[in-house]
Design a protein that fits this description.
73 residues, alpha+beta, 2 helices, 15% helix
């Protein structure tokens, strides 16, 4: 089954929402909110900003059933 590639990110600071297309081959660790210019990073335990602030988890999580494509430092 093909992963869902569109996710709506909601900024936790200003509540600005924007639909974004997720990358299929990597996790996106940073995202700058267009509403307030806050640089978002994943919350503890999440691999990317889509898993933390999006309506749909990233494609690697969708495909691997909970395992991520990256490691955090």
């Amino acid at each position: 089954m093909e992963p869902t590639l569109l996710s709506t990110i909601t900024c936790p600071v200003c509540q600005y929402e924007k639909e974004e297309t997720m990358p299929t081959d990597a996790c996106q660790y940073f995202y700058e909110c267009e509403g307030c210019e806050t640089l978002l990073k994943p919350t503890a335990g999440d691999c990317c900003v889509f898993c933390s602030y999006g309506t749909v988890p990233c494609p690697p999580i969708q495909a691997d059933g909970g395992r991520c494509c990256t490691t955090k430092s």
